[in-house]
Amino acid sequence: MLKGKTALVTGSTSGIGLGIALTLAKQGANVVLNGFGAFEAARDEVAAAGVKVGYHGADMSKPGEIAEMIEYAKKDFDGVDILVNNAGIQHVANVEDFPVEKWDAIIAINLTSAFHTTRLALPGMKARNWGRVINVASAHGLVASAQKSAYVASKHGIVGFTKAVALETATTGITVNAICPGWVLTPLVQKQIDDRAARESIPVEQANRELLQEKQPSLQFVTPQQLGELAVFLSSPAADQIRGVAWNVDGGWVAQ
């Protein structure tokens, strides 16, 4: 369905971003990956779908590097048709103890980076009168949890940003929507589970179960592949009039 389109997925060398990139690739989209660390395994996994795959290691907290990434996509892939803003980091602390540099980094990577990628990708989408901007927010973009002030603020910000840009592009062939996952067993969440197990001196399996019981009524993790399938749907003609939606995929978290 997406043959001939190019998807740029930020934070896509593992976890949710890689799952979305893989699912889009299986529908024929060429993919530009982004992220820190070793990317070769992710690149090879996506390339196995038979599509063209590129990589740019832009630091998503640096506007100049983001601009270079968009230029790379224009030069090597003729632009970005599907932009998935997924890059994100987390830190847990009470607000009075929250390190200022952590707050700044979370806002920069989780929220401000989406502003830069979107503003730079939109002109090309408008020229083609087709595009998809899919912002990976969180259940924390709809409800809050204690000790996550920066993350909650950034994800609420992404939901608001999504709505504003959806209105600005409402008469075009570009749609802008957000996906709001609940708990997904990514390296980010696994670290929270491991930290909890160590802090409370309990087995990891117990920490895992308690995490789900607190928030996610299904008692099952959402998978990156499920989020990828939603991204595919949002990229389809069936979703042409889905605009400015924050779509929670959370096992019932926000229904409570």
Compose a concise summary of this entry.
The chain has 256 residues and is α/β, with parallel strands linked by helices. The protein has helices at 15-26, 40-47, 63-77, 100-128, 149-168, 187-200, 204-215, 224-234, and strands at 6-9, 30-34, 53-56, 82-85, 131-136, 174-181, 246-249. The model has no long low-confidence stretch (mean pLDDT 97).
What's the helix count?
A: 8
- What is the helical fraction, as a range of percent? 40-55%
The secondary-structure element order is EHEHEHEHEHEHHHE
The major pleated sheet works out as:
7 strands, parallel
- Average pLDDT level: 97
CATH superfamily of the largest domain: NAD(P)-binding Rossmann-like Domain
CATH class of the largest domain: Alpha Beta
Alpha-beta content class = alpha/beta
> Can you name the CATH architecture of the largest domain?
3-Layer(aba) Sandwich
N-to-C span: 36 Å
| Spatial order of the strands forming the largest sheet | 3-2-1-4-5-6-7
Taken from the alpha-carbon principal axes, the silhouette is globular
What proportion strand?
A: 5-15%
- Structurally, the number of domains stands at 2
Rg, alpha carbons? 18 Å
Given as residue ranges, the uncertain stretches (5+ residues, pLDDT < 50) are none
Number of strands: 7
What CATH calls the topology of the largest domain is: Rossmann fold
